[in-house]
Design goal:
Elements (H helix, E strand, L loop, with lengths): L1 H20 L4 H4 L7 H6 L38 E4 L14 E3 L2 H31 L4 H19 L1
Antiparallel strand pairs: 1-2
Helix pairs in contact: 4-5
C-alpha cells in the first residue's frame, strides 16, 4: 500500500511541475498576450490542494486449485456411516478418525464369536475331564473339542 502511495505522490509532483512550467510569460514564447484570446484559454490553470487519501485496488480473478497429492482413503471395515467428524477440504493428520461407521452388526458378530468360543471352551473342558477320569468317550472327540476351543479363541482375537 505504501508503494502505491509513493507512486501516486511522484506522479502528482511531476504533473504539478509540468503545470507550473507551462505558466510562463507571453513574451518568453514570443506571443503577444493582448492580441490573442486563444492564448488566454490555453494558460488558464486551476489550482488545487493535493490531499492524501486511501486508494483501494481490487482485482477479481477466477482460478482452479489443484492438489499437489492425491490420497486414496478407505475404511478398515465396511458399513453405514453414522457420523462425519471433518469437513470437506480440511487437512487432517494421518490416522485421524474421519467418520464413525455403524458398528451394531460388527458388535453382534463379536458377541456371537464370544458365545461360540465360550461354548467350545466348556465342551473341551468337559471332554478333557471325562477323558482324564475314566477315559470316557473317544480321543478324537476330546481332540476335536480342544481344536474347536482354540479355533474359536483365535477367531475372536481377530
Amino acid at each position: 500500500m505504501k508503494n502505491s502511495d509513493n507512486k501516486k505522490r511522484e506522479i502528482l509532483s511531476l504533473l504539478a511541475v509540468l503545470a507550473i512550467s507551462g505558466c510562463g510569460t507571453a513574451q518568453a514564447d514570443g506571443i503577444d498576450r493582448v492580441d490573442s484570446d486563444e492564448f488566454v484559454r490555453i494558460i488558464n490553470v486551476e489550482v488545487a490542494r493535493i490531499e492524501t487519501e486511501k486508494f483501494l485496488e481490487e482485482i477479481r480473478l477466477t482460478a482452479t486449485a489443484v492438489a499437489n497429492q492425491d490420497v486414496m482413503v478407505s475404511a478398515e471395515e465396511s458399513g453405514v456411516i453414522r457420523e462425519i467428524f471433518v469437513d470437506k477440504g480440511v487437512q487432517v493428520e494421518s490416522g485421524a478418525p474421519l467418520a464413525k461407521i455403524d458398528d451394531r452388526v460388527l458388535s453382534a458378530q463379536v458377541e456371537q464369536a464370544r458365545a461360540v468360543a465360550e461354548l467350545a471352551g466348556q465342551t473341551w473342558e468337559r471332554r478333557k475331564r471325562l477323558w482324564e477320569e475314566d477315559r470316557i468317550g473317544s480321543e478324537i472327540a476330546y481332540l476335536e473339542a480342544r481344536f474347536g476351543a482354540e479355533q474359536s479363541r483365535a477367531a475372536l482375537k481377530g
